[in-house]
Amino acid sequence: MKVIADLCVVPIGVGVSVSKYVAACERVLADAGLKTHMHAYGTNIEGEWDAVFNAIKRCHEVVHEMGSPRISSTLRLGTRVDRDQTMEEKVRSAQEKF
Amino acid sequence: MKVIADLCVVPIGVGVSVSKYVAACERVLADAGLKTHMHAYGTNIEGEWDAVFNAIKRCHEVVHEMGSPRISSTLRLGTRVDRDQTMEEKVRSAQEKF
Amino acid sequence: MKVIADLCVVPIGVGVSVSKYVAACERVLADAGLKTHMHAYGTNIEGEWDAVFNAIKRCHEVVHEMGSPRISSTLRLGTRVDRDQTMEEKVRSAQEKF
Amino acid sequence: MKVIADLCVVPIGVGVSVSKYVAACERVLADAGLKTHMHAYGTNIEGEWDAVFNAIKRCHEVVHEMGSPRISSTLRLGTRVDRDQTMEEKVRSAQEKF
Q1: The complex's ipTM?
Q2: Is the CB of residue C78 less than 8 Å from the CB of residue C39?
């Protein structure tokens, strides 16, 4: 089952600047070979369900290892079985109707 | 790694009434032995990371098997390594300060 | 336009314990006369669109006034025009099909 | 109070293809003069609180007027009072630490 997800990891208890933790998660997702697009409030991720969720678990582990005692993430999570769809198609499809 | 999550599964392409799909997900979570609390816009889930995410994957599989061609879920996802915490404690802690 | 929402306010830069900020938001929502139900990962809110969103804005203002330099909230947001629905009905409807 | 938000509007009860509704929301946000960036699972929005939330309300109204009986949206919502920040800075800040 393929999934297109959108992940936003929020480390708590490490002060107001969280960009180094976000960067570490980008590294985890890249190392997992997943297709990603980072935007201003999260990261699009495309891949097989297990690969995506193993990487998300690794993000939490890494951010804790970096010293964050607490994390609150949010995730949007889309699957479909009627046809295959990519992140690029989703954007293009809306832009064409704009 | 323990997680407290909040899951909202939205089946797309099956009409306006989605409660039977929500009920099927509740069944999946209960069968997985997870601690849950259903509210008006999702379900709190408490358990070990892998057990929680195996159940969430199963929810998507079951809702697709029931005939929904597309699903868009949202998930909040909290982990902490400074101390153990339960769903009940989170609620009580805020209520005490009310 | 009536809305059923689910709000989770996460103050950033104030350490690991956030319950007093959550409690302050509960107070704001109660003072606004909104129907609410607090759970382990947010608060269900039912009311007219403008009343709900004025209260959510006030939550952010109050949490900043309490000393939090940064806030990252998440919101689920449901409207329907086919019929009226309450928070209790949403839960009951899924429970009946369980 | 300035806000950086991320909005994902999900029309329910109009079938599996939702791109024309997403495009209509993009039009609403553009007409409101807001700075936006559409990605594969939502749209970043930057602006003053009231302008952003008036536009989000208008998105729900327009999608209902187009025939969708029910909508379930999700929103991430960031405010900060310690300093000004733009969408571009948020992305660049994480990329520099990658």
Answers
A1: 0.95
A2: no
Distance CA D77, CA D98 (A): 24
**Beta-carbon contacts of residue D6 (< 8 Å; ≥ 6 apart):** A8, A39, A40, A41, A42, D42, D43, D44, D45, D75, D76
The candidate with the shortest Cα–Cα distance to A6, out of B39, D46, B26, D7, is D7
Q: Does A87 sit within 8 Å of D40, measured CB to CB?
A: yes
Location of structure tokens 């830069």: C13
Q: What is the pLDDT of residue A40?
A: 98
Contact D16 B72 (CB under 8 A): no
Q: Give the residue on C whose Cα is nearest the Cα of D67.
A: C81
Contact: C16, A74; criterion CB under 8 Å: no
Type of residue found at A16: V
How close does chain B come to D11, measured CA to CA in Å? 8
pTM, two decimals, is 0.97
- pLDDT tens per residue across span C3-18: 999 999 999 999 999 9
D40 to chain B, closest Cα gap in Å = 13
